[in-house]
């Protein structure tokens, strides 16, 4: 469990092996995970809301600006856009009955993240999104493995 | 001066929270049909981002019931029960072995009802005290990572709310200790109304 960096809400991290990145307890939040397998550079941004308003405080808080910033950071650190691929985790709908009155933020988060990735021509390799369960995600930068856990022991590698 | 004011606000809010928690505990004791000893109630005012740490980390599994007020006052409300407390409560209510990972519809409904009754009686007590009606939307309950449960109020209210009135209450019943957390996430205007009304009440 050494070198595990927890990426909190509205935070962004770009790193190389042997460090590992994690987002704990994703509900309607989405973790956008990018990886360049050739230089073994990986990054996560943990976004809370879908769209940034005109005067936003933190780019990392929103799916549209956060994803864009993560792509820029990856390239600045030496990744090449054509080699980067993406994985998306999160965007669940935790309280369905209450959400009837509000909009489904989880779904909107995923939608915005996909849109920005598409604009940047970045492939989405896998998704572990939507549904009703919260998730925790661990990203091993050495082999680019992403492990997704749900409450009560469900584990999946994407 | 600022510290003085902060202490005064915390005093007012503690009074508010204590009366609410007492009322919720009484209701719960009726529901469970057992005597219930209220042990300690502590109250804190926290920024939204610190709540997960206060509750002991985002990666633990909890039972959460969430709703929001839709009347004159605007606030999110979250009742959080730690895993073991939730299991004991459900066990007593449904007289069945409880596995939180695969709750039946009846057990889910019981969980929702426990949260609903606690939060409604809390609201009834505090709304009498400040003499403003509080109207909660129908709540929903889930069992999941604490971080994931907290995501919902963060995302829906995050832009307007930064203060959380966090109450921890522990009580004895059925030969064991229970813990419960009651989080109120008022919009700033609502918090001001509460403080104003409670200020009058305290005089």
Structure description:
The complex is a heterodimer of chains A (158) and B (203). With 158 residues, chain A is of the alpha+beta class. In chain A, 21% of the residues lie in helices and 36% in strands. Chain A is built from 3 helices and 10 strands. In chain A, strand 4 (30-36) and strand 5 form a beta hairpin. In chain A, helix 1 runs parallel beside helix 3. With 203 residues, chain B is of the alpha+beta class. Chain B has a single domain (2-202), classed as CheC-like (Chemotaxis protein chec). Chain B starts with a helix and ends with a helix. The chains are: A alpha+beta (158), B alpha+beta (203). The A-B interface holds A 8-9, 24-29, 48-49, 92, 94-99, 101-102, 105, 132-136, 151-153 and B 49, 52, 57-59, 61, 66-68, 70, 100-101, 137-152, 154-156, 158-159.
| Oligomeric composition of the shown chains | heterodimer
* Name of the CATH homologous superfamily of chain B: CheC-like
Question: How far is the first residue's CA from the last residue's CA of chain B?
Answer: 20 Å
- Estimated share of beta-strand residues of chain B: 25-35%
* Distance separating the two termini of chain A: 20 Å
**Roughly what is the average pLDDT of chain B, rounded to an integer?**
84
Give the C-level CATH assignment of chain A: Alpha Beta
Q: What is the highest CATH level, the class of chain B? A: Alpha Beta
Number of helices of chain A: 3
Q: Helix proportion of residues of chain A, in percent?
A: 10-25%
Let me know the number of strands of chain B. Answer: 6
Count of separate structural domains of chain A:
1
CATH architecture of chain B: 3-Layer(aba) Sandwich
Main beta sheet strand tally, sense and closure of chain A: 5 strands, mixed
Main sheet: strand order of chain B: 1-5-6-3-2-4
Strand fraction of chain A equals 35-45%
Uncertain residue ranges of chain B: none
């Amino acid at each position: 469990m050494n070198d595990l960096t927890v990426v909190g809400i509205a935070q962004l991290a770009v790193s190389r092996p042997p460090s590992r990145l994690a987002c704990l307890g994703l509900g309607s939040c989405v973790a956008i995970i990018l990886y360049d397998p050739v230089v073994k550079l990986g990054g996560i941004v943990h976004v809370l809301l879908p769209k940034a308003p005109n005067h936003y405080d933190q780019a990392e808080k929103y799916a549209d600006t956060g994803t864009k910033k993560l792509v820029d950071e990856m390239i600045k650190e030496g990744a090449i856009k054509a080699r980067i691929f993406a994985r998306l985790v999160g965007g669940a709908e935790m309280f369905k009955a209450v959400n009837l009155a509000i909009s489904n933020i989880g779904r909107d988060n995923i939608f915005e993240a996909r849109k920005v990735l598409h604009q940047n021509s970045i492939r989405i390799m896998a998704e572990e999104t939507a549904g009703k369960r919260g998730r925790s995600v661990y990203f091993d930068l050495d082999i680019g493995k992403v492990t997704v856990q749900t409450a009560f022991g469900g584990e999946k590698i994407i | 001066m600022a510290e003085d004011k902060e202490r005064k606000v915390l005093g007012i809010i503690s009074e508010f929270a204590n009366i609410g928690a007492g009322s919720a505990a009484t209701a719960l004791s009726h529901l469970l049909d057992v005597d219930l000893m209220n042990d300690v109630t502590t109250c804190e005012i926290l920024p939204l981002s610190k709540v997960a740490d206060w509750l002991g980390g985002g990666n633990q599994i909890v039972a959460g019931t969430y709703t929001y007020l839709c009347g004159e006052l605007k606030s999110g409300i979250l009742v959080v029960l730690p895993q073991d407390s939730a299991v004991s409560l459900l066990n007593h209510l449904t007289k069945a072995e409880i596995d939180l990972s695969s709750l039946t519809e009846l057990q889910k409904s019981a969980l929702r009802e426990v949260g609903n009754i606690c939060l409604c009686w809390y609201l009834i007590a505090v709304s009498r005290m400040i003499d403003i009606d509080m109207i909660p939307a129908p709540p929903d309950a889930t069992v999941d990572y604490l971080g994931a449960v907290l995501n919902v109020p963060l995302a829906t209210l995050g832009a307007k709310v930064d203060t959380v009135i966090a109450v921890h209450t522990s009580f004895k019943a059925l030969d064991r200790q229970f813990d419960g957390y009651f989080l109120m996430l008022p919009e700033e205007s609502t918090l001001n109304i509460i403080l104003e009304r409670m200020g009058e009440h305290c005089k």
